[in-house]
Amino acid sequence: MNIHQYVVRETGEIVTEKLIGDRLVHLLYNPVREHAPAMFNALTSSRMSSLLGYFHFDFDLDQRRGKGLELLTKMGVDWQECVDSPHTLDTPRKVFERKIRYWDMRPMDQDPLAVVSPADAKVLIGSLGTTPALFIKEKFFSVVELLGMEQGWVDDFEEGDFAVFRLTPDKYHYNHLPVSGRVLDTYELGGRYHSCNPGAVLALASLYAKNKRVVTIIDTDVENGSQVGLVAMIEVVALMIGDIVQCYSGLRYDDALPVRPGMFVEKGCPKSLYRPGSSTDILLFQPGRLTFSEDLRMNACRRDVQSRFSSGLGHPLVETDIRVRATVGRANSGRVWPVQKCRRENWITDCLKKKGT
Q1: Which one in 20, 33, 259, 276 has a CA-CA gap of 20 to 30 Å to 289?
Q2: Is residue 174 situated within a structural domain?
Q3: Does the pLDDT at position 153 exceed 80?
Q4: What pTM does this model have?
């Protein structure tokens, strides 16, 4: 198996990732998938994912209580970031679902046109207009599969830009809003619980679109919005993820509410929580509305980094390790083109009628 490396944004350091369960993933997504499809389907089912999550995060708790600092250290978590006392974080689940003082520890660019990272994650950026469509369709996703055709948002994001944020089990697992704007639609699409290990992504065509996911469409071309057009935020479950809890809070983690059409949501605020395991956030942007940060664009095409995602592509495709609320790009313009404006207003009217808002 090839090694997988990424770039640390703050330092430019190249890190070789120790992928958890890498050999098992290779076995599952190659010999087992090819020669025992029934077993493969069972192992990637909701029931099996929940069982694996239970045994990994909840089983045999008595032996793990009272070891908060030890668990945090083992998982590479900085306990000084946590809202709760480290001594109370005495199980893997509590560590996984921890809250952090993001208002102090994850500063955010106050430029209203800045688009920020929704998670502590490794990000991969690209354009559906320039990245080879065959690679995206076969290895990552197609917009049609990812968003679902029946919901009616596919045409808005064809040929647009994308950012894929891969969360690993050690990461902080609250998702935050990447933009400010008005929620037009939110819906769940059913699916399985495939691993988001890079090896699994390369082995199974359009893996992200095969997993259960929650899609949220945000219109940012509104008063106090981020002025970057429509943005699709897709939260994708993975192996051992039991649920995606929608819990938007305008102030820290207080008074959490589920995200609903018609709500105005603020950039940088918590939106949801994964329970628990590894997982993925995907952002889709309309064509021409966003310019990614220069360092992310440079990192993505570095030839001195061994990324599994570059395999078979013909040019580099490299992840950057990034923190939640860090800037990933900026809106190109607050101006809405006439055709887009008319189209968006029609979508708003139809969507809010459909949702009864």
Answers
A1: 259
A2: yes
A3: yes
A4: 0.80
